[in-house]
Design a protein that fits this description.
Blueprint: E1 5-8, E2 15-18, E3 25-30, E4 36-42, E5 45-51, E6 62-68, E7 71-79, E8 86-92, E9 97-101, E10 103-105, E11 109-115, E12 120-126, E13 130-135, E14 137-138
Parallel strand pairs: 6-14
Antiparallel strand pairs: 1-2, 2-3, 3-4, 4-5, 6-7, 7-11, 8-9, 8-12, 10-11, 12-13
């Protein structure tokens, strides 16, 4: 799995990440009360905005699968639980699976992407040992 590519800015509150398998982009900015905010963009526009420290901070915020030209991909992102040092995502295919260490973003979010045809994910946040299994939704562009 190729990791997301980060373009750091002098102010840590702004970060751009390019996801190579899906071609999607992540932008980090500031939300209400100067909390980090994660924007998820496709080539067609904004898909999701997550703000850190809100009332609802699910471990998995989004989980999608899709196709870019002839290549299939899967993508997941979410909130980083307090005290978490690592998030591992297991992408499940009909036969087998692939483990990916997620890229941590702005100290508040995580993202993981894998090329291939996957149906579901299991996400584990460590050392807190929070875990969640989610079916991937199909994204059509």
């Amino acid at each position: 799995m190729t990791p997301a590519f980060a373009t750091p800015h002098p102010d840590d509150s702004h970060q751009d990440l390019s996801l190579p398998a899906s071609g999607w982009d992540l932008h980090v900015g500031r939300g209400p009360h100067l909390r980090p905010a994660l924007e998820v963009h496709t080539s067609h526009g904004l898909v999701d905005i997550a703000v850190a420290g809100g009332f609802e901070t699910p471990l998995v915020r989004g989980a999608l699968r899709g196709r870019r030209m002839t290549h299939r991909w899967a993508l997941a992102w979410g909130h980083l639980p307090s005290g978490t040092e690592e998030v591992v995502v297991e992408f499940h295919a009909r036969r087998g699976s692939e483990h990916v260490t997620a890229t941590l973003v702005a100290g508040a979010f995580w993202v993981a992407e894998a090329p291939g045809s996957f149906r579901a994910i299991t996400v584990a946040a460590m050392p807190a040992l929070s875990a969640e299994r989610v079916r991937l939704r199909r994204h059509r562009s």
